[in-house]
Amino acid sequence: DQEKDRAERIAARTDALESNPGSPVLANPQGFITIVAFFDYTCPYCKAAEPRLMRLVDQDKRIKLVMKEFPILTRASGIAARAALAANKQGKYRAFHIAMMRREGVLDEAGIFETARAVGLDMGRLRRDMTAPDVNEEIIANFNLARGIRVFQTPAYIVGGRFITGDSANIDFSREVARAKK
Questions:
Q1: 170 three-class SS
Q2: How far apart are CA 81 and CA 40, in angstroms?
Q3: Which of 80, 109, 121, 180 has the highest local Cβ count within 10 Å?
Q4: Cα(first)–Cα(last) distance of the chain, in Å?
Q5: What's this model's pTM, rounded to 2 decimal places?
Q6: Is 169 exposed, middle or buried (0-12, 13-18, 19+ CB in 10 A)?
Q7: Residue 27 and residue 61: Cα distance in Å, rounded?
Q8: What distances in angstroms separate CA 173 from CA 42, 68, 165, one per listed residue?
Q9: Which 8-state DSSP code applies to residue 169?
Q10: Contact 9/124 with Cβ under 8 angstroms?
Q11: Res 8 pLDDT > 80
Q12: Residue 166 φ/ψ, nearest 5 degrees
């Protein structure tokens, strides 16, 4: 069955999902419950779920939150994902990520760079880092990983090895983490 197949696919890729050095980690890198988030900065459902997810990881220090840039929706999605990974090299991934998730309206290149400036990124370095081979490799790895576990939409979450999908507004992250702790 589809659920069992996906669970096996996730289990076979746990290391790539939870411990890829190229994937930014928000919250405790040593957390013993891992949430993996596949998301796109232009996805309204990702933006709807993000404040609850951030609140949870800020409150529960046992959670490791791994971000998988998965720019599948628009051209701007790809630019935003590259900018976010480049921001990570300046130690400002979290600030940039939160600012991007809270940004309203249609996302375009100018808005992405405006957000980067607003969080204090070195713009010359950002533009250079956006084209770095490791940034490209991370995005390609995320696409391959998503395909491997049959993820074709955003947002998609894996909580303690369990795939969570459906209406992002109704995902109870606290409940999912409690289930993972058992």
A1: helix
A2: 8
A3: 80
A4: 24
A5: 0.95
A6: exposed
A7: 7
A8: 21, 17, 11
A9: G
A10: no
A11: yes
A12: 105, -165
35 contacts 173 by C-beta, under 8 angstroms: yes
Are 172 and 55 in contact by the 8 Å Cβ rule? The answer is no
Which residue intervals of the chain are DSSP H helices?
A: 2-12, 14-19, 44-59, 75-88, 93-102, 109-118, 123-130, 133-148, 173-181
What pLDDT score does 165 carry?
A: 77
How many other CB atoms sit within 10 Å of the CB of residue 157? 24
In tens, the pLDDT along 25-49 reads: 999 999 999 999 999 999 999 999 9
Burial of 149 (0-12, 13-18, 19+ CB in 10 A): buried
Are 6 and 150 in contact by the 8 Å Cβ rule? The answer is: yes
| Dihedral class, residue 122 (left if φ above 0, else alpha if ψ from -120 to 50, else beta) | beta
